Amino acid sequence: MEKISIIVPCYNEEEAIPLFYQEAERVKAQDFQDIEFEYIFVDDGSKDKTLEEIKKIAEENESVRYISFSRNFGKEAAMLAGLDNATGDYITLMDADLQDPPSLLRKMYDMIKNEGYDCIATRRVTRKGEPPIRSFFARCFYKLINKISDVEMVDGARDYRLMTRQMVDSIISLREYNRFSKGLFSFVGFKTKWIEYENVERVAGKTKWSFWKLFKYAIEGITAFSTAPLIFASFIGLLFCVIAFLLILAIIVKTLIYGDPTSGWPSMVCIIIFVSGIQLFSLGIIGQYLSKAYLEIKHRPTYIIKEKK
Ligand code: UDP
Ligand code: MG
Fold first, then answer.
1. Segment 101-159, tens digit of pLDDT
2. What CATH number is attached to the domain comprising 158?
3. Is the C-beta atom of 124 inside 6 A of ligand 1?
C-alpha cells in the first residue's frame, strides 16, 4: 500500500491541532481508504500545550509521529525536519491552522498519479482576511524577486504541496542554513502543477508572523536567490564616480575662467551627506550577504531535536 506523509509544522497551535487532526482523519476516511497516512507533527519549540496535544493524538494512532525541537527554530527548520524524517512515497506539507485544506489532497494525489507531475503546489488567489498593507508588501516582494532572481516565485504560493519521494530527496540534499523554501522548491525543478484556491482564514489561534518577521523573511529570500542588490550597489558606485568626474572637470574649467571665489558650502554639505548615505546603504547590502555567508560557513544545524517518535 502506498503511503503519504503529512508534515505539520506547529508553533503554539494547541487549539488548532485537534481540529486539524479531526479534519485530516475525516478526509482519510472519506477519500483515502486505499492509502496509508503518516502524520509528522513538528513542534517548533512551542510555549503552550502543543506537544501535549500532539502526544495525545500519537497515543491513540500508530501512524502519528512527532518531532519536538529544543527551541523555536522557525517554520523553515520545522519543514526541513519533517522532510528529513518522512518515510512516505508522497510527502505533503500542511499548516496546522487548516489554511491548507486537507480536502484538496485527493485531487492533488490523483493529478500526480494520472497526469505525470512530480509536484502539485497550491496558490491562493485571494488574500481575504489579511491586513491590506501586508498584502501590498507581499505583492511588491513577488514583483521584485521575480525581476531580480532566476528562479521563479509564484505570487500567493503556499507551502502546501504534494511531492514525490524523488523531489523531496533532492530538496533535503540542499543543506543550506538560510532556507527559503519557496525558492528551493523552484530551484530543484521537476514538473510542478499549480492549483488555485480561495484563501481560508485560520480556524483557531493567531498568525505567528509579524510584519517584521515577514520583512526579514523577504530579505532572506532576496539574499538567498539573487545577487542583484550587489550589482545595484556597484552600479550606483560607478554612476557616482562618473558624476564626480564630470563635476571636477566643470569646476576646473570654471575656476580657470572666473577665478576662485569661495562659495558652495551648503551644497557641499548636502553632497557629502548624500554620498555617505549611499555608501552606508551599499555597505549594508554587502553586509547582508556577508552575514549570510558567515552563518553558512559555521555549519550549525538548522534545528535541534529534543524528543521524537
Ligand atoms: N510555524 C512554525 N514555526 C514558526 C512560525 C510558524 O512552525 O516559527 C507554523 C505555524 O504553527 C503554522 C504554519 O507555520 O502551522 C504557518 O504559520 P501561520 O499560520 O502563523 O502563518 P500564516 O498562515 O499567517 O502565514
Ligand atoms: Mg496560517
1. 999 999 999 999 999 899 999 988 887 777 888 888 888 999 998 899 888 888 888 89
2. 3.90.550.10
3. no
Q: Domain span at residue 269? A: 228-298
Instruction: Indicate if the pLDDT at residue 264 is higher than 80.
Output: no
Q: State the pLDDT at residue 71.
A: 94
Whether residues 119 and 200 fall in one domain: yes
What is the rounded distance in angstroms from the CA atom of residue 302 to the CA atom of residue 300?
6
Q: Which amino acid is at 143?
A: K
Pull the grid cell for residue 293.
555567508
Question: Which band of pLDDT confidence, cut at 50, 70 and 90, is reported for residue 7?
Answer: very high
Which atom of ligand 1 approaches the CA of 74 most closely?
8
Are 76 and 136 found together in one domain?
Answer: yes
CA of 18 to the centre of ligand 1 (A): 16
Pocket flag, ligand 1, residue 97 (CB < 6 Å)? yes
CA of 211 to the centre of ligand 1 (A): 13
Q: Say if ligand 1 is within 6 A of residue 118 CB.
A: no
Nearest Cα neighbor of 63 from 94, 39, 90, 92 is: 39
Task: Give the pLDDT band of residue 197 (cuts 50, 70, 90).
Answer: confident
- Rounded Cα distance, 261 and 259, in Å: 6
CA 209–ligand 1 middle distance (angstroms): 7
Does 68 share its domain with 21? yes
Q: Is the pLDDT of residue 267 over 80?
A: no
Q: What is the dihedral of CA 275, 278, 280, 282, to 10 degrees?
A: -140
Ligand having the closest approach to the CA of 13: 1
Query: Which residue's alpha carbon is nearest to atom 3 within ligand 1?
Result: 75
- Quick one: pLDDT at residue 302? 92
Ligand 1 atom 17 nearest Cα? 208
Q: Is 199 in the pocket of ligand 1 (CB under 6 A)?
A: no
Q: Is 221 exposed, middle or buried (0-12, 13-18, 19+ CB in 10 A)?
A: buried
